[in-house]
Amino acid sequence: MLRRPRELGPPMLVPLAWTFAAAANAGAVSDHTLFIAHVVMAVMLAVFAVTGRRDMREGTLRVWWSLIVVGFFVTAAGAVGFQVETASDLLLGVALYGWMLLPAVGFLDTGRRATDGGVYLAGAAGCLLGAGITAVGTFAGVDLAAVAGPAVVGVAQTAGIVDAAARS
């Protein structure tokens, strides 16, 4: 019953999430809204991990299932980061950079295994590039990087997940 939504949900949710992240970094989304989004995403990841476990036991699907499980904790860290003052920057950084970098691991594995894995390798490179843009911009005080970095990651991850959905 949930197989089709599990296959088609990510190609819609990934670009939505990164558009939301870029908008948040531009100041267009409140912290409370971001907190709610993190809670909703954590619940969705937990449901996805539980319902998808049976179908994701081998090969690259197992790698992606593991990343989803780790991503649940990364997302939960972000939700907690919106509710505490102590260590909030650390927890929010774990959420942001975790989701920028975790899929790069999956894309590298998928690209290595796929017959024509160029889009996945490019996706991994885009994740790293976007995280780098965000980090450099954060430390250098370049506001545009806070939007550009997530945008690069969003394009890279969307390309990979759309290709994967089309192949399944």
From TrEMBL:
Task: Provide the alphabetized UniProt keywords.
Answer: Membrane, Transmembrane, Transmembrane helix
- Transmembrane parts of this sequence: 33-51, 63-84, 90-108, 120-140
**Superkingdom as given in the UniProt entry:** Archaea
Protein name in UniProt: Uncharacterized protein
Q: Which organism is it from?
A: Halovenus salina
